[in-house]
Amino acid sequence: SIAIVGFAITVSLSEMFAKKHGYTVDANQEMYAIGFCNILPSFFRCFTTSAALTKTLVKESTGCQTQLLTFALSCFLPRCVLAVIIVVNLRGALRKFAEIPHMWRANRIDASVWLITMATSALVNTELGLLVGVLVSAFCVLGRTQQAQVMELGRPTTREHYEDLASYRGLRTHPGVAVFRYSAPIYYANQSLFKKSLYRRVGLDPVKEKAYRIKFNKKNKQQGHTNVKLEEKEAAGKVDEVEAGATATFMNSSCSLRSLVIDCSSILFLDTAGVNALKEVRKDYAELGIKVVLAQCSASVLDDLERGGYYPGGEENKVIFFTITDAVHYLQS
């Protein structure tokens, strides 16, 4: 815990002063420096070497250039004077509290992480404060991936650029071909949410549709009405509400929709569960006669798909589209 706190304070101060005075800092080099400085003192029960928050701020504000100032202060100035110097020179740090309303308006999540970390560090201890800050930040990132939703895309008449239909006016879609985008990585924590969001946006859940069709055919077979048309059965009142809704869903959705394009440009990575989710989407829609293809995959996503065995039948069946336009033209042809 001492090593983590010392490294965090040193790097934070280094980056703050580097930004102020116009130079760069390598965090790895700072870590090596702290480690080498603590090797020899560790055998003699010395204090851990790292940057001191208050003293560093005081010395920087007074124009200190070397460590000789520490010797002069310790020899000639009483503690009360040093305390006043520290309080006065920490005015800049204390002014950060006045920025809380602006931080809250800019980004409530980041402001909440800052407040929780600051409160834990001040009221409990620095080690637990840093740990809580890291965990809260990690959970916030995880929560953002859980809130991502599938968007349906369209394109203007004069360009080949696709954007969200709900965000822009004047976009048009392609008959029989729908384009969707998911702006988050697909991994074990959100793969089921990705499928639910996609099925809801498409308007056709292939898993439920398949179950409805099996139930519908099974009941018709038991009643001996397999050759009766849907219109005649509805007129005769022999189809219950579930069967009629399921059949209507299949007739209205899948007859007009023949292909799906998933834009993967915003997907940063895929794990094994994410690749399996894409496999299930392709397989479930294929059973309804709807073809699913991927477009604009990054190199890392392509590697994840390759390692996860996404492409059936090997290299000969591997179809990759670098643009959405190429995928749409392929499906329309």
UniProtKB/TrEMBL annotation:
This is Solute carrier family 26 member 6. The gene is SLC26A6.3.
